[in-house]
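User: I'm preparing a small set of examples for a lab meeting where we compare how different chains pack in three dimensions. I only have the primary sequence for this one, and I'd like the structure in token form so I can line it up with the others. Please keep the answer compact; I'll paste it straight into my notes.
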Amino acid sequence: MNKKDKEKLTMKALEELLEKIETDIRRARLLIHQLITWDFSSTSETEFKNLAEKFATYQEGDEVKVIEWVFDWYFMQWSDWKKYPVPLNYASKSKLIPGDVLKLRIMKDWKLVYKLIWPAPRKYVKATLSKTDDNKYIAITDDGKTYFLNLAAVTYFKWKPWDELSIIVNADWKWDFAAIEALLPSENIDNNEKV
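Assistant: Understood. Below is the structure token output for the 195-residue chain.
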């Protein structure tokens, strides 16, 4: 491998590392926001512990540990309050919302494999894409409710503020997070123009 190839590999590794750090910082900021604005009376620790009784942890042979638990937007939090990070791309592609139950398989080499096994009750809502002052993507519904969105979903599809969306929220619990179902067609397009 020549010097130029090594430099390219190093730059690529640095870019990936910076991307991960930026994602972790965004997660930390959102968790701080969650803690500041969280209404502990609406979704309590007791509710999570009651849910825990329905789920399991077990081994699949000597190689794989399996945990079933609840997705809280960035993490799959288990009954022992350990948190396992759920990749943003997986959460976006699977349209995960808080309250979804996932199965996590922890392989011997520490690879984490997630699977949605019990979707939370869903409600679909029309919203408008916007950004906060600190550049977080949010969806604002017609009745003024604001939901934080998965950055991976917004950036992958290159959506822009003021685009209209169909979002998915938890129908039973009050969370400030939503998954994106789809971009809604613009009402002002010409019949010959594609969306």
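A couple of notes for your slides: DSSP finds four helices and eleven strands in the chain. The chain has three domains: 1-37, 45-118, 122-183.

User: Perfect, thanks.
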